[in-house]
Design a protein that fits this description.
The protein folds into two domains: about 10-100 and about 310-485, Beta-lactamase, CATH 3.40.710; about 100-305, D-tyrosyl-trna(Tyr) Deacylase, Chain: A. The strands form five sheets. Strands 3, 4, 5, 6, 15, 16 and 17 form a seven-stranded mixed beta sheet that branches. Strands 2-1-21-20-19-18 form a six-stranded antiparallel beta sheet, sandwiched between helices. The protein has helices at about 10-20, 25-30, 35-50, 85-95, 130-140, 270-280, 305-310, 310-315, 320-335, 340-355, 380-390, 395-400, 465-485, and strands spanning about 55-60, 65-70, 100-105, 110, 115-120, 145-155, 190-195, 205-210, 215, 220, 230-235, 240-245, 250, 255-260, 285, 290, 300-305, 405, 425-430, 435-440, 450-455. Helix 4 crosses helix 10. Helices cover about 30% and strands about 25% of the residues. By secondary structure, the chain is an alpha+beta fold.
């Protein structure tokens, strides 16, 4: 006779039994899943237990909201980047997919000169140096030939530009840890380009946007065939960065190009704008500073793509900068300026409670899931997925932003056997100690869909094995859904 889904108390008891070498089979805990899927889940749970790890899982039939089963479905753990599912849902719930974000130039033109040119934005994470160049060209079209001071107005966001949790790794300079600001360019990162020259001479090192990074030292060009040992150590220096250069690159090798985050992002877009003005032929002879909140004479405006077109950066590409910036932009729009990360987290919390997806132990602190800040349960995530699938205001935009197994995004190299069916739509999550995967397994023509969520914790050093076990369960579920189109109707032995 089928038993009820595993409760938190039963899960704790199950761990104790496993510790006493008495295996609790997943098939006994998930009576509404087929025997084949339950066997795969059992194998994954046994692997986790045998390695001192924890596995949580939950499955929900999205059309009926029936929970098909799971292991510790209500236990909240660090969800890693699966937190972005909550962020995406919160954004769509409050804004809808057509929302645009704006960045504009303000000032008064007199005889072809703008004494103070103000750059202001409301949190567009997609703004690039190329966009600023287009805005500079638009100024030329308006007859602007000279600009005095350039002011960057960051007042739409507060000054806490390091998102919650990011302080846990202050010495990480990779672009995935970039700070956020209301006016941001190139994801608040700088492009480092190292080009070898002739052996024995200094390599050419450049930073884009120009002027924001002050080089110190040099990188030598070594003879051909030598391994590259270039070192670029970034450090804050006032409102910009200094780069301590050392090491070497080999003559004839391809240029090295990579992105690094900035420390204080508030004037970065100003540096990029001044370069764009000069390139467009506009003389800029004044200072660069923060300010300009009282200037409202709009000269040029740039609008982002609709939110629905920005969200794949969260779901498919797992971009932390987009997630944190958009959630803070929503906070500013919904709760008033300056927008704060805390207000964004409150909006996400309110949405989870509104849809009945709040479990004991749930904690939302940032929007990206980076580092050790948030706690979500697999049940919470499957309820988010099920609600988004059924809710017209979220549905298509939410589902379309997810990575497709074997096709694109962070799942391009996973579920390749199922790529033609496009049967797995999901969000990945990876931290040093966590592997997560939450999404949908969809049947032919999407007539049926099962929402699933896995969080494997305590898997440091075994991330690949954890993914392999999780993927095995998902693939078996997909095979059976396509074979029978009735997973919920298949009963475990």
């Amino acid at each position: 006779m089928p038993r009820p889904c595993l409760t938190r108390r039963a899960f704790v008891a199950g761990l104790a039994a496993a510790a006493a070498s008495v295996r609790v089979r997943a098939s006994e805990l998930t009576p509404r899943l087929s025997a084949g899927v339950a066997a795969e889940l059992d194998a994954a749970a046994s692997w986790a237990t045998s390695h001192g790890a924890r596995l949580g899982a939950c499955f929900v039939e999205v059309n009926t909201s029936v929970e098909l089963g799971g292991i510790a479905p209500g236990v909240a753990e660090n969800p890693a980047s699966n937190e972005k599912l909550v962020t995406a849902g919160t954004l769509l719930r409050n804004w809808g997919g057509r929302r645009l974000l704006t960045t504009a130039l303000y000032g008064s033109v007199k005889d072809g000169r703008v004494a103070e040119l103000v750059l202001r934005g409301d949190g567009d994470p997609s703004l690039t140096s190329a966009d600023l160049a287009a805005m500079a060209s638009a100024l030329v079209a308006r007859g602007v030939r000279e600009v005095g001071a350039v002011l960057v107005d960051q007042s739409v966001f507060d000054d806490a530009f390091v998102p919650p949790g990011f302080e846990q790794q202050p010495h990480e300079w990779a672009a995935f840890r970039a700070p956020v600001s209301a006016v941001a360019v190139d994801r608040n990162s700088v492009l480092v380009v190292i080009e070898p020259s002739a052996a024995g001479t200094a390599a050419r090192v450049s930073f884009l946007p120009e002027g924001f990074v002050e080089p110190d030292g040099r990188i030598v060009t070594a003879p051909r065939g030598r391994p590259a040992r270039a070192v670029v150590g970034l450090a804050a220096r006032g409102d910009h960065l200094v780069a301590h250069l050392a090491g070497s690159v080999a003559e004839g090798q391809a240029p090295l190009k990579y992105r690094q985050r900035v420390e204080d992002p508030r004037l970065l877009a100003g540096y990029a704008l001044r370069r764009a003005l000069a390139t467009a032929g506009i003389r800029c002879d004044g200072s660069l500073a923060l300010g300009g909140a009282n200037e409202h004479a709009e000269l040029v405006v740039h609008r982002s793509r609709p939110l629905a077109e920005l969200l794949p950066e969260l779901g498919k590409n797992s971009d932390n900068f987009y997630a944190e910036t958009l959630l803070k932009a929503l906070a500013a729009a919904a709760r008033g300026v300056p927008g704060t990360s805390a207000a964004g987290a409150e909006l996400a919390t309110a949405w989870l409670k509104e849809i009945g997806a709040w479990d004991a132990g749930t904690r939302v602190t940032n929007g990206s899931g980076l580092f050790d800040t948030n706690r979500l349960s697999p049940r919470t995530l499957t309820r988010v997925l099920a609600n988004a699938w059924r809710e017209p205001a979220l549905g298509a935009d939410f589902v379309n932003q997810l990575a497709v197994g074997g096709v694109d995004g962070t799942l391009k190299q996973r579920f390749t056997r199922l790529a033609e069916r496009r049967a797995v739509l999901a969000k990945t999550g990876t931290l040093n100690d966590t592997v997560a995967l939450s999404g949908y397994v969809v049947g032919p023509e999407r007539r049926r869909a099962v929402a699933f969520s896995f969080i494997a914790s305590g898997v440091h050093g075994r991330l690949a094995q954890a993914r392999q076990h999780i993927d095995g369960v998902v693939e078996r579920l997909a095979d059976e859904l396509w074979a029978t189109n009735d997973v919920a109707g298949a009963r475990a032995n």
